[in-house]
């Protein structure tokens, strides 16, 4: 009897203690539901350091405790509090006979859901027996792109070993999940993506840019296996077809990897080369260095990577050095048929043309080899010309364009070599891209490296831009305008407002001359190159006219 009395006293004391805790947790609640509010995951909720707050106004007051097992809503409150804090160990302690992978099942659910926040709203607790109860609740999860995901579940409780415990099944996570099931995120594939123009439009047919775009993909600048189009959350139960419980589909499917290419400019360049076997057109935005078009019939990305003698188009660089050293477009110079380098070789004009005394502007427009050779010998030196070429990108790394260098020029060993370099022969070589950037520098007044073709690619460590002195930029614009008004490109079908420079370059391997024409119209700068095409006026200028007139 004494032992029984002692046991009864212990039971009563325990009941009083449990009731006191339960009363503290639910104190101040007057309405029929409670919100367990979680801040965005990993951050404290408003109102204190905890991730969860118990708002006033929740489930009904607990009925008086009539047994030593305590209160089911106390256990439920503790369980929900731990859940919104992702405290799976605390949750597990409140569960009757939890599975070994209890925490893993919750983590896998969260990894699939990727919820930005979780809110749990609790309804009225229902006693289903003397030692069993059930409490409905609603989960609200903020999902990326899809907004709020809301669904109802219920939490069952029962007395186990004189304690109220959660009777847990996977349906607590989501009512559709059965034992052995899980929530799975699926991401449909759009298939391999191709680079597209700056506005998302597919490139024109036979654009001549395929090799460059393929190179982007191969270098990993753009994805090669496709990108996900929306997503879906599915409940995958053993032996049953998957059931979608939430999905998101974007209004617009991704159409491809954006490049800097402009559809209209690319189409005009491609069609201008129709019927031409070995040629290329490169167009850039002069003010930024963005590549707007590359139509290449040379193969192997030659327009960016293969160097050719630029011929008289390089006189643009030589003229810049002369303007930097005291000459002006109106300075008088001699354009004789032949210039004899003192104690060295003679330099001839094309077809030994003799134009006598002319201005520097006229000598440039008529492409006088003798004028530029003589002026370079008398007023410049090898170091001066090399430095000026470097200011236009020659010898400057150009990895952004996919080439090791834009162009190259060795320091001349003697006056013969210096004279040849002055009009783009000798050791001078350049890619078509390089010469387009030279024309762009004249128009904008600043040499800029080419930007990467992939519009959103990291720029990396690009060479710095090089501003031209104002008198040099203005002088070069005057010289290039004269070429199309009364020089070697005059009388062609070029549209108004085009300025440029023709070039006819000896192959060096005994083949027919290469043809060049570089220039600009507004903010569009370009280079036309025809391998073994003959003269710049005869082969390159007509292609440039077709290109520009199509814009």
Helix content: 25-40%
Q: Major β-sheet, in short?
A: 7 strands, antiparallel
Mean pLDDT: 85
Strand content: 15-25%
| Quaternary structure | single chain
Q: Total helix count?
A: 15
Shape designation: rod-shaped
Residue ranges: pLDDT <50 for 5 or more in a row? 1-35, 37-66, 398-404
- SS-based structural class? alpha+beta
Distance between the termini: 108 Å
Query: Got a strand count?
Result: 27
Task: Report the C-alpha radius of gyration, rounded.
Answer: 39 Å
InterPro entries: Beta-lactam/transpept (IPR050515), Beta-lactam/transpept-like (IPR012338), MecA_N (IPR007887), NTF2-like_dom_sf (IPR032710), PCN-bd_Tpept (IPR001460)
GO molecular function, one term: penicillin binding
Domain Penicillin-binding protein transpeptidase: 280-548
Protein name: Penicillin-binding protein
How would you describe this structure to a colleague?
With 551 residues, the protein is an alpha+beta fold. The chain is built from 15 helices and 27 strands. The strands form nine sheets. Strands 1, 2, 3, 4, 5, 6 and 7 form a seven-stranded antiparallel beta sheet that branches. A five-stranded antiparallel beta sheet has the order 14-13-27-26-25, with helices on both faces. The chain has a three-stranded antiparallel beta sheet with strand order 8-10-11. Residues 1-35, 37-66 and 398-404 have low confidence and may be disordered.
């Amino acid at each position: 009897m004494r032992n029984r009395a002692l046991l009864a006293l212990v039971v009563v004391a325990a009941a009083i203690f449990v009731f006191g805790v339960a009363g503290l947790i639910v104190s101040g609640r007057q309405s029929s539901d409670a919100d367990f509010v979680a801040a965005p995951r990993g951050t404290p909720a408003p109102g204190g350091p905890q991730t969860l707050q118990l708002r006033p106004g929740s489930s009904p007051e607990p009925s008086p405790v009539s047994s030593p097992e305590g209160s089911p809503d106390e256990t439920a409150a503790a369980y929900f509090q731990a859940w919104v804090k992702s405290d799976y160990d605390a949750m597990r302690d409140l569960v009757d006979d939890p599975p070994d992978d209890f925490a893993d099942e919750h983590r896998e659910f969260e990894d699939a859901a990727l919820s930005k926040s979780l809110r749990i709203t609790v309804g009225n607790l229902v006693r289903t027996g003397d030692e069993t109860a059930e409490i409905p609740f609603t989960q609200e999860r903020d999902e990326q792109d899809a907004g709020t995901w809301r669904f109802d579940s219920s939490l069952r409780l029962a007395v186990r070993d004189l304690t109220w415990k959660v009777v847990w099944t996977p349906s607590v996570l989501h009512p559709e999940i059965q034992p052995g099931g899980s929530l799975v995120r699926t991401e449909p594939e759009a298939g391999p993506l191709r680079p597209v123009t700056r506005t998302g439009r597919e490139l024109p047919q036979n654009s001549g840019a395929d090799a460059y775009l393929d190179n982007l993909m191969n270098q990993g600048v753009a994805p090669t296996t496709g990108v996900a189009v929306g997503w879906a959350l599915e409940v995958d139960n053993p032996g049953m077809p998957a059931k979608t419980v939430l999905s998101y589909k974007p209004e617009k499917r991704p159409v491809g990897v954006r490049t800097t290419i402009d559809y209209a400019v690319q189409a005009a360049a491609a069609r201008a080369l129709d019927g031409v076997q070995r040629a290329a057109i490169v167009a850039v935005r002069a003010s930024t260095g963005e590549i707007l078009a590359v139509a290449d019939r040379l193969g192997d990305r030659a327009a960016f990577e293969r160097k050719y003698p630029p011929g008289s188009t390089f006189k643009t660089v030589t003229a810049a050095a002369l303007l930097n050293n005291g000459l002006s477009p109106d300075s008088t110079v001699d354009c004789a048929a032949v210039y004899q380098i003192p104690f060295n070789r003679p330099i001839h004009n094309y077809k030994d043309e003799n134009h006598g005394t002319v201005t520097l502007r006229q000598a440039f427009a008529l492409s006088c080899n003798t004028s530029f050779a003589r002026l370079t010998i008398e007023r410049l030196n090898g170091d001066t010309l090399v430095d000026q070429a470097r200011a236009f990108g020659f010898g400057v790394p150009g990895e952004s364009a996919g080439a090791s260098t834009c162009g190259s020029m060795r320091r001349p060993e003697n006056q013969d070599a210096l004279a040849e370099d002055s009009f783009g022969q000798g050791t001078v070589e350049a890619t078509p891209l390089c010469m387009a950037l030279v024309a762009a520098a004249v128009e904008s007044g600043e040499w800029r490296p080419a930007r990467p073709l992939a519009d959103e690619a990291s720029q990396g460590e690009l060479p710095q831009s090089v501003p031209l002195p104002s008198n040099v930029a203005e002088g070069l614009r005057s010289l290039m305008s004269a070429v199309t008004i009364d020089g070697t490109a005059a009388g062609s079908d070029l549209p108004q407002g085009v300025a440029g420079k023709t070039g006819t370059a000896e192959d060096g391997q005994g083949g027919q001359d290469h043809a060049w024409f570089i220039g600009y119209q507004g903010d569009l700068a370009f280079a036309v190159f025809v391998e073994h095409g003959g003269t710049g006026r005869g082969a390159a200028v007509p292609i440039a006219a077709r290109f520009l007139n199509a814009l």
